[in-house]
Amino acid sequence: MKVAFAGTPDFAAIALEAILAAGFEVPLVLTQPDRPAGRGMQLQPSPVKQVALAAGIPVHQPEKLRTPEQQAPLAACAADVLVVAAYGLILPQAVLDLPRHGCLNIHASLLPRWRGAAPIHRALQAGDAETGITIMQMDAGLDTGPMLLKRAESIQPDDTTASLHDRLAWLGSEMIVEALEALPGGGLVATPQPAEGVTYAAKIGKAEAVVDWTRPAAEIERAIRAFNPFPGAFAPFQGTPVKLWRARAIDARGTPGEVLLAEGAGVIVACGEGALCITELQKPGGRRLSAADFLRGAPIAAGSRFD
Q: Which residue among 51, 68, 174, 279 is least packed, with the fewest CB closer than 10 Å?
């Protein structure tokens, strides 16, 4: 079976590597155009493109997939199925109809919860006890297609988007190989998504990363984990944006934003409900530091305030 692949970041690259390791023929890879990155802002290939080039697979990088010309390489490769994972482009119906087995999507949530662009972030931010992977038959809607495989993954109390992403990427890579092996023989049962329980995982905006100290400490703590590594939660202190990487909610009271205590064990800041003990911080241009190391270079006094 010929398996075309569409994806861009590390999450998708892990799936592509698994498909190749399983012995499937991949005649074409679709990925986002090279983007500037790094200090020099040089054009960098996506992780998926790097895997494809290393395997000698042709790569197509259209800005959109709307026109017959943009779709031509996929049509020409005569793939039996297209696997899609965090590609970043909307697939029009003409593309969904090209492979004879259609398009399978690796989605990082237990659909219909967290349809959309940022399911891992939103599951953490909401305090969900579990999330998972859904292998879905794609249709023209936003993550609305029937489900083929679905497996849960527990969310640990100290999980960040980075740690949860990595576990889900490996789970997704195993499940897509299982789905592809079952596909030709009709071994997959398509189950429509239930109408109840639909939520949407909107794309993460940098403005969300600013800490609102009037919110409950438990909510802020979840946001810090959800925004690790991107975009990184931060709180201005005396005009300097300080990134907050690790914290825990504790039972303490004060005016929201007020520093109740600053010592090696953590910087305790009052919130709208409870307080936050921050244990890992970072100044602009600096490294992530424990509270003890951070305070040695940038003292914070009890009674001072985060903006």
A: 68
User: Which residues have C-beta within 8 Å of that of residue 296, sequence separation ≥ 6?
Assistant: none
Q: What is the pTM of this model?
A: 0.95
User: Position 232: which residue type?
Assistant: G
Domain 3-201 indexed as CATH 3.40.50.170: yes
What is the Cα Rg of the chain in Å? 22
Q: Is 184 helix (H, G, I), strand (E, B) or coil?
A: coil
DSSP string for residues in 250-264: ES---STTBEEEEET
CA distances from 99 to 3, 5, 29, 167 (A): 9, 11, 14, 29
| CATH of the domain spanning 206-297, picked from 3.40.50.970, 3.40.50.10190, 3.40.50.2300, 3.10.25.10 | 3.10.25.10
pLDDT in tens, 138-149: 999 999 999 999
Any idea what DSSP says for residue 208? G
Structure tokens at 170: 């490996």
Q: In the structure encoding, which two tokens stand for residue 159, read together?
A: 């999980």
